[in-house]
Amino acid sequence: xxxxxxAIWGNTHSGKTTTTMKLxxxxxxxxxxxxxxxxxxxxxxxxxxxxxxxxxxxxxNILSAPQITQESIxxxxxxxxxxxxxxxxxxxxxxxxxxxAEYDREKAVDFFILLRHLADYIIVDCTGNMENDILSxxxxxxADIVFRHITCDLKSLSFYESHLPLIKDRRFKADGHIKILSxxxxxxxxxxxxxxxHGVKYQLPHSQELEEQSLSGSLLESLxxxxxxxxxxxxxxxxxxxxxxxxxxxxxKSQKECSFKLESLLDSIKSSxxxxxDKIFKSFSKDKR
Length: 289
Ligand SMILES: Nc1ncnc2c1ncn2[C@@H]1O[C@H](COP(=O)(O)OP(=O)(O)OP(=O)(O)O)[C@@H](O)[C@H]1O
Ligand SMILES: [Mg+2]
Hints:
Blueprint (H helix, E strand, L loop, with lengths): L3 E7 L5 H14 L4 E5 L20 H6 L5 H6 L2 E2 L6 E5 L14 H12 L4 E5 L8 H9 L2 E6 L3 H10 L14 E7 L5 H7 L3 E6 L2 H8 L10 H63 L1
Parallel strand pairs: 1-5, 1-6, 2-4, 2-5, 6-7, 7-8
Antiparallel strand pairs: 3-4
The structure holds adenosine-5'-triphosphate and magnesium ion (MG).
The site of adenosine-5'-triphosphate has 19 residues, from α1, β7 and α8.
């Protein structure tokens, strides 16, 4: 397993949930096991993606339990009938800040450590205001990759003016965030925003079809319109990069393992030669006497 944690973060309404769903769908179609964690407790969003009853399962049950185990996580996983590779962990409809006992950062860390062992990719749909959500803040710290969503409006600029100082600490590795310009409309001041936020890597266009999918709770369906396909192409590029980076990391890991094994072999050869030399020297000195 590749066991990567991917955090999707950005200002309010920047397309975080949309990207989460599209990325999860695409990776699951490449037969990667995905767990999507949806952090939003102020307006639980899973019912907008899979609009059918998910029973009493809730992320809140995991985090409020005295101890988190793989079993307690698996008990709250929501699976899809049509896609064995895609699993969700989310707050249930009606949950709010007061529904569960409080939890601390340590518990959130335990949660992500255990999750890493359960899927190839853990995709975390973070809340923008991570300062109010321990789970999102911890995901931003522990993620291997953070996709930072920016929209071409003044609210996004304001959001980052306020939030970038909060993730200045080295543990957030904010310089490594991958910046995505999201939901770009033709009339928006795209170039000015690109200039303002250096290093935008991906640009996701606005697609009416995508917006309609959000409205009808069908984000896991494919896009067929021209703009929809443009959007999907960018998601495919991101997916390809994720998968190829994984194989590079895996190759690097196996290279390191090989050189480690080779070094141990050399060490044992050297020690055998030393022992042999010692023996020869001793028998030579005996003969002389
Ligand atoms: N590329 C896009 N094309 C068209 N509509 C989009 C696009 N990206 C996002 N949207 C729309 O913008 C709205 C916000 O998207 P989404 O819910 O994914 O954002 P969010 O960052 O998760 O929001 P929140 O902060 O409320 O959780 C939705 O109505 C969605 O359909
Ligand atoms: Mg959202």
